Structures
1.
Amino acid sequence: MKKLSILIFATLILVSSCKESNKANFTPASIGQVNSLTVVMSNSLWEGKVGDKVRELFAASVLGIAWSEPRLSLRHMPDDVFTGQIRKTRSVLFVQQKDTTDLAYIKTDLYARPQKVAIIIGATEDALVETIATRAEHIISTFKETDMKVTQNNFLRSLNDETDLREEFGITMNIPSVYKVGKREPNFVWLDRDIKKGTMNLMVYTLPEDAFDNDSTFVSDIVRKRDSIAKIYVPGPNEGTYMVTEKAFAPYVFPTEIGGKKAAEVRGRWEIHNYAMAGPYVSYIINDKENKRKLVIEGFTFAPAAIKRDFMFELEAIIKTLKFIPKVEQ
């Protein structure tokens, strides 16, 4: 009897697993552009303070870009319109007012794969506004993480096979094949790709391990070091012109982790000394203790009169595929 019970239990587990597997196999692929969000709520909520709070937080301006570009492009619809193909949207925020319920949670692959559906339910408009305010950053980071994985998976279709980064720094990144090495010198590699009326760029170089010893001058030291490298390696279009950090735009600095190592993320704007060119950059200063150095990887964009948010997101996605090649013991 005991053996029979175990057999029945095992069969139920197997059937359940098969159902989950079949569900995964038949879940349709999600749709939508990166950094876009479908907001599902009633028109009355959207047009009032609940919608105002969603727009304030989810469509806030991207850091490090001069013109106001939203961190997420919002598309609103009432829940009776959220049907059919639209349900396959990769990132969804569902907001609903119910008299006696206050809930906030995120569902994964509810209608498509990959997909994140954030659900916020509140008894009053004030409760909804409060929940949105407290949960927005976590929800946004979840959406961004999904978009990042999709973007990085897209890179795998066609990768750059040049070995300059491996040879010069002992690292690899999943860089799309449209990027080509434009300059390589000792301790410096520059890759770029053409876009409409501009370029997207990646630079890699190292600094001494003790390059940033003074916490009180950390930000100014970052700017000074960056400018010294850019002046040497990133010339402008005319003689006597070169890249510098824009003086009127203080960079944003955050702690992060890249390639399993602690790092500083720096977002700001660059310009060309004595020439009318400028744009955003994101730089990662990685504490590479094993190699007794600071490894710096920077992405920057020149795209006048174009939306730069998604260009910068692609560069960030590339950098976050960084891997260090293990040293072979002699």
2.
Amino acid sequence: MASTPASGVADVDHKSVSTIRREVGSRLQAEQVRRRSQNLEELTGVAERQFARHLTSVVIGEHAGQRMDKGEAPLDTAVEQQLSEAVYASMFAAGALQALLDDKDLEEIDVNGCDEVWVTRAGAAYAEPAHPVASSDEELRKLISSLASYAGLNSRPWDEANPELDLQLQDGSRLSAVMSVTERPSIAIRRHRFEKVTLEDLVGNDTMTVEVAEFLTALTHARLNVMIGGATKAGKTTLLRAHASAIDPRERIITIEKARELGLRKNRELHPNCVEFEERIPNAEGLGAVSIRQLVRRTLRQNPDRVIVGEVLGPEIIDMLNAMSQGNDGSMSTIHCRSARDAFDRMATYAIQAEERLPHEATYRLIAGALDYIVFIKRDLQTGNRRVETVLEINGYDDGRVLSSEIFTVRRGGTHAEWTGTPPARLDELTAAGWTMPGAGERGW
């Protein structure tokens, strides 16, 4: 099974595969929407794959008809079969990895070579060993290369010249792979168990309290700019996806990512007008690259109501903050940091490394004029539990630092963020968005 995705797809036309795959995916999604609207059970597992194969045959047949209408020779049966298998591989097949990807209890899959596999289950603090995913490292490399050929918006090479790879698998999982710089191929897969998640869902799994969820909902409705911070594996992407669920469906959203991961466009009921931008790496000649920074700038000409940068990792922070301060209210992003206030220094570090060499003081002023709140989420290393720890309001700039106040935080000995009793400076906006301050009636506010 491990060799299936890599066999019979190398010689097919990648552009045709991408075109057909997108059309099949669109029709499959339309069928799922139709079934939900009629209270029918969605297609899953084998049924979904069989229907996808049927759609693939239909779309390939339509393309054949279009070729004939143009006076072009039709593809022979063998080529059509290769094309069909390539489309199926791009949508579903991941070799022996597929069994792990189908395990809904897994959150992380780490491969340190074909026969050294570790998995982390939901709620577990540490990984456990799993079965090999290929018969050799070369087979593993071919498998990942095959997936990279069809995942995302553009084919991504993974070879000696391009040893790093980031992409989103069909099920929404994020894959990061490296080769040549390690003794054996190294693959890390982060599975998102909650693709369509709301703040209410995160209350249900104990990530936050009802009070925090209500406050975050108000932040969204009030169109305040939010940065979500946390360490690796903290749950930033899931929290961002849940935060975005509160956005009015009538709003136009543009997301920007290194490799598509948020998947807001999949939830067409909540986000019917959503465009996903993905960074493009240069080709073999070093041409054609489109950076995150360029994409952030481009969004200003795409009529967005909201701009969401999946993760700020470098100099694009300057463009992101500029966009927020110039009218893109309600924008969101995530950043790696050790605490809510540490996010300020992290952003300043990215900015000083940019070509502008923006000094810390200038970045702090930019943060104060652009960002409204930082939401910090933390993962307990012992239990694996993820919880919102701090909601920090940004109150301006003075004397070389960003002024801020904690609105929600975890008290000493506590486990969940609670209201600190500090009235938000943006109380009028939050009240208009439907938020009621805890104990407001008792205090006369």
3.
Amino acid sequence: MTLLGVILLGVCFTSKPGNLKAADDSFFWISATGDLRGEIKPCGCSTDGDMGGLLRRATYLKQMRSSHESVVYLDLGNNFPVPSEQGRLKVDLIQKAMLELRPDAILVGPNELLYERPLLNQNLPYFLSNLRGDWLVKKSLFVAAGEKRVGLWGYLSPAQIYQNKHEELDVFPVSSQFIEDLQKQLEETHPDFAVLMFRGDEKELQKFEKSQLFDLIITGSNNDDELNQILEMKTSEGSFISIPTKGQGAFHGRVDLNNKKKVNLELDWFLAKYEDDQKMMAYFDVYDQSVQALFFSNLDRMEKHELEAPYAGEETCKTCHIVQHQIWSTSRHSNAFATLENVNKHFDLECLQCHVVGLQKEGFLSPELTPKLLNVQCENCHGPGKAHSSNPKIRTPNAAVKEVCSSCHQGSHSPKFDYSLYYPKIAH
């Protein structure tokens, strides 16, 4: 479905039957957003892509709350950008904005877990139900909708995040035991309306669907293309709304507790009709000033680093060592940084030291500041080469090859490492 084809879309999704007693205050409203991925504001490059942003979301929510007495506002998370220095500034801005937006719940998404220590503001209602042990967030939430009580549970597939046995975070997959535990929680807490906020794949979703535990399931988007929005996730038996990619819109609708068989949710795109919220604009002004300061600071750091760093980078080596560079470019060493990105550990210093050049040795600083030092390159093995590139008579401080290899290919990091088998793959 193209972006043009969904601009005016209204969607009706079916939820399971309910058996709750009727009440006079049987109506409330739900609004669902999320999946910002650091897209804090439309860039302004094109009128065709002029949608989304926190400033318009703030105006949308103010209008919702002024028009409807009882609104439950849910956010499906995945709001943080990928890690970088500017990304950290965005994280701060996003969470300040979310405090103003006052969500009733925020599902912890993959992007919230990208940083070395999740930078989750404890004053925001982050939660996640499929967690073992105590962690930073609650496992369920209950919010008021008038005089009624809405129960909220959240699921994040372990397949969408990186975790290992040494980390505090322990997210487990949906199982029959987990479904039984959720059923007990629902029986004990007796919410008037039960919602699952879900991030996973269709097979995981179908297990929750078959359980018939929830009155409404809202899914977070797995889509990466905001120009080709995917607004529903389908199973073999039904379909469920998926919030727009890059935070470009929101679903909202009225829940009738007397007739929970059908919940009508309509899609609102955050177009220019939603003016920028002026109160929140102050946060953006501070952010812009911080970004500008970071830019000039980085220029100074890059200039200083270029003068002082002893590393030249593989492009410099290539000018003389063409054949050797070609052999290197076809090896896995040339894509070493991407392997970290694939498991969201490209910010972890313990991991980076074996995937870039000269970390903490006057070499690699960040992808933005020192892009020429990404991956395992010539200088990882041959030593700093800037002096050699300036004067070929100056030799690089080559270390013993086997010793260099074993400094990274050791223990659980490379359990199948055999020097006699691995070295021929890179020999030049």
4.
Amino acid sequence: MTHTVEKIGGTSMSRVNELRDTLIIGNRKGADLYGRIFVVSAFGGITDLLLEHKKSGKAGVYAAFASSDSDHGWHEALDRVSDAMVAAHKAVLDHPGDIERADAFVHDRILGARNCLIDLQRLCTYGHFRLSEHMLQTRELLSGLGEAHSAFVTALMLQRAGVNARFVDLSGWRDEGDVSLDERIEGAMKDIDPAAEMPIVTGYAQCAEGLMREFDRGYSEVTFSRLASMTGAREAIIHKEFHLSSADPKLVGQDAVRKLGRTNYDVADQLSNLGMEAIHPKAAKTLRQSGVPLRVTNAFEPEDPGTLIDDQPADGPNVEIVTGLDLFALELFEQDMVGAKGYDSAVLDILTRHNVRIVSKVSNANTVTHYVDSSLKVLRRVEKDLVERYPSARVTSRAISMVAAVGRDLNGLAVLSRGLNALADNGLEAIGATQGPRPVDVQFIVEREVMQPAIKALHHALIENSDSGLLKAA
């Protein structure tokens, strides 16, 4: 256990030339350069162009290929990917020879993907084959292009700087056979000595399990965690472009936020549920079961140790973070629900069928309310199915936000009552509030337009004031 496995995200990858001189090399020389395995994401924005934009949903190559009635849409989208890849590596590479090799790499991979999609399209003109049956494999093929490009470019850049870096391609490009994720990693790493060379590994790994089937765009963290577990890493490190802090510094102020410093996997799971992923929950589970601690750092402050995430309990009760998420409240009201069974399970079945993520829920004698993370379009389909299932029920939905106070141990802090008072003191009203028996989070439901002021009010009352000794366990 002498090495670390470290992941660099897409936004940070777009400045990998800066990271070369600080995070990756810095003042290290000789043997001190090694004992580190880097897992890299695609350069910022590339995966959006390959698949679809993560936030806006704007179509990339995958979406254009899936819906296009002609060749033109996805071909043009693939050309845009090629141009963006070339621009990305020209921004970080200095040597003309390295740029030439990177250009050739992009040309080869894009041409190969284009020919594959053309052949698939042609094959599916025959009645025996359905394009829909091959879309998952198509999504995987396209995803792997981004990470393969960034890993190849990073290895080139480091080799030019005198580092014995090796490009490790887990994307299965032109490989024969179908192997498991463990077999893919084991085969790629078997001849590599991290003590003498620096592996630069693709965040995407092609395998029989199909990472995108379960994890979609969270696949790079799954690869990262499995690699750390299988190689017996001393520590798994995620380098982000910010510290894991008590709130968004842009919202509450740089001087007001506190770097977490230390927390546990339980808090990481709560943050993931609220859309603020420190790490994908399944990746966290792998590290947790393997006994590998996780560290989250700011990639551009390499001297700062960041935040350590392990299984250790807190030294004492404390609110560690306040965050929020825009959601919809889906409400089913049925007067005949009192004493009857099955309503809740029926709602769950319909939400599952439409692949709607449930963040939280509350219920009383005749009402079940689910707070869901969904698009309005999908939610309308859910409402339609619920009305068909329960014609006499009243089904409604409304846009709301959830603001949560999270910590390893909230015992004795009266977070619920203090939080409600803090909102009221700032002229804000909570639509609802929930606190479960496990003292790890308290959720406040507010109107969307007051989410940001609610986060500021709760952070000031529950975290900033606690620094001054004003908030203590009862």
